[in-house]
Amino acid sequence: MLNTILVIDDDEDILRVLKANIELHKLRVITANSWAEGQKALTANNPDLILLDVMLPDGDGIEICRSLRSQRATIPIILLTAKDKISDKVIGLESGADDYVVKPFETLELIARIKACLRRTKSVTTEDEVAIKDLRINYKKRTVIVKKREIVLTPKEYNLLCLLVSNKGYVVSREEIKKHLWKNTKTYEWSRVIDVHIQHLRQKIERNPSEPEYVLTVSGVGYKFAE
Fold first, then answer.
1. What is the dihedral of CA 56, 59, 60, 63, to 10 degrees?
2. Looking at 104, 121, 138, which one is the last position of a domain?
3. What H or E segment, with its residue span, contains residue 176?
4. Residue 105 maps to which CATH number?
C-alpha cells in the first residue's frame, strides 16, 4: 500500500508541481488549498505525512501544527515556509513540526526529507515494551506512559526518547542525535535544534524539567538516559 502525503498550500502551482513530482516516487498525494479543505482531506484520507504551508488564507500554520499535535500525536508534519530566520525555524520546531523547509526549495531534497520522516516513523525495535522507573514505552503501540498517564510526543520526540533509552546509561553525542533524527545533518548545523527537542521531551516526561531525572546533560558532549 502506498504512503499517503497530504499537501496543504494555497499556491496552486506549488500543489501541482509537488503532486506530480512526489507521485513519481511511489507516494500517493492528496492536495488542499486551505486549512478548511485540509481538515476534510485529513479526515477522509488519514495520511501518513502532512506538508503544511505556514501562511494559509484561513489559518496560521504554526497554530494548526500545534492543534494537529494534540489530536494526532505521531503523524509527521513538515512545514513549508518562506521564513528562513533561525528564530522562525525554532518556533516551527517548537510547534511540533518534524522538519522545516524554506521556499523556494529543491523538490528532490523535499522528497528525500519526506522519505526520511516516513522511515523514522516506521522504525521498530525488537522489544515490545520497556519500563524505567515510572516511564514505560510500548514500541508496538508507540505509546509512552509516565506515572500511569499517557504522554503525547511528536515523532521526533518519540524517536529521540527511543534513541536515548536504547543507549541507557551511555552518553549519546549531539552529532549522533542529529544523525538519528535527520539524515541530512548539514541542514541542521545551527546549535539550538537539539536543545529544542531535548527541552520539549523533558517538559513532557520529567517531573521537574529544570532538574531532570531521566534525560541527563553531559556537559560538552551530549545527553544520556539515566540508569
1. -140
2. 121
3. helix 174-181
4. 3.40.50.2300
> Of the residues 121, 140, 155, which one is the last residue of a structural domain?
121
Q: Say which amino acid occupies 52.
A: L
Residue 126 predicted with pLDDT over 50: no
Distance linking the first and last C-alpha atoms of the chain: 40
Which residue spans within 70-174 are E strands per DSSP?
A: 77-81, 99-102, 129-132, 135-138, 143-146, 149-151, 172-173
Q: Per residue in 154-176, pLDDT tens?
A: 888 998 999 898 888 888 888 78
Say whether pTM exceeds 0.70.
Answer: no
State the virtual CA torsion across 56, 58, 59, 61 in degrees, nearest 10. -20
Tracing cell 505509546 back to the chain, one arrives at 143
For 39-56, write each residue's pLDDT tens digit. Answer: 999 989 989 999 999 999
**Residue 95 and residue 68 in contact, taking contact as beta carbons nearer than 8 Å:** no
Provide the domain count of the chain: 2
The answer to whether 221 touches 171, Cβ cutoff 8 Å, is yes
